[in-house]
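Slide 14.
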Amino acid sequence: MRVPNFWYKGPGLLAGLLLPLTFIYRFLTLIRRVTSKPYRATVPVICIGNLTVGGTGKTPTVIALAQRLIAQGYNPAIVSRGYGGSQKGPLKVNEQIHKFSDVGDEPLLLSCIAPTWVARNRILGIIAAVKQGANIILLDDGFQNKKIYKDISIITVDAHRGFGNGLLLPAGPLREPIHSGLSTANFLISIGDDRAHENFIKKLSLKRKLTVIPGRLAPIKTGMDWENLTVFAFAGIGNPEKFFLTLRNLGAKVVNTIALSDHQVFDKKLLLRLETEAREINAQLVTTEKDAIRLPDEFRKKVLSLPVRLEISNWAEIERLVEKLISL
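Slide 15: predicted structure.
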């Protein structure tokens, strides 16, 4: 799915025309919330989710938190729905065996960090992970899933985009109203540069005390010199423009870009187009770490990937709450 531009602009005609459908969407979500009886796991469940459709830095947040917990001696496991994969699960992801078509691209990436389970029924995924020795569950997405009790809920947001036009799907990017979503969260991680974070906080109206933590996505230092490298960049993530800007900030000469749909499959026609256009302009193909996972092995050799990780200066409050839950 490619995010519509009008979601991140002021109220317009198209958003207004779609507004009646938002009431139907809201009604259905309320019914689901009222009728759901949440399952409570035997270990703490930390949900990392968002209020909007599209890229907000959720996956980098899961990676950063998993690495942090592992470094402190915990045994976290990640549970994902496995969007884009064919396996219903519960299935423990093995990057040596499974392909993105089996389990989805994000679980493949996450499995390199911590034990990762895909399950359409995420309750079964949690149970399987705990049986394998997990003492903390990181629920990848699922903030709107009311069938699972979350001990800690973390919402991620792109500080540059914020919550868009503030409208529910399909008139806007919101999965649920801002006030109700934030009212059940423990932390809000605002991802962007300092200026974007400050602007976002100024516009944000909080009706309750909520810990807002600034973070930023930074490229991993791999020894690659991007300065003056002629680049043809392509990305199938929630916000491709953010990736293109990162390359430019590294000094790369981005001479062409293609913004693909999130999780887009690379068929032969698309791969031929990428290779042909890159050859014509004598540019190096570059993509994201998540997109690279979906490339065929023979084509991946022709493409450079740029991995990024979330940097947070202050983990103290999250760590304090995790320690409290573990000690109960």
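Speaker note: DSSP finds twelve helices and 13 strands in the chain.
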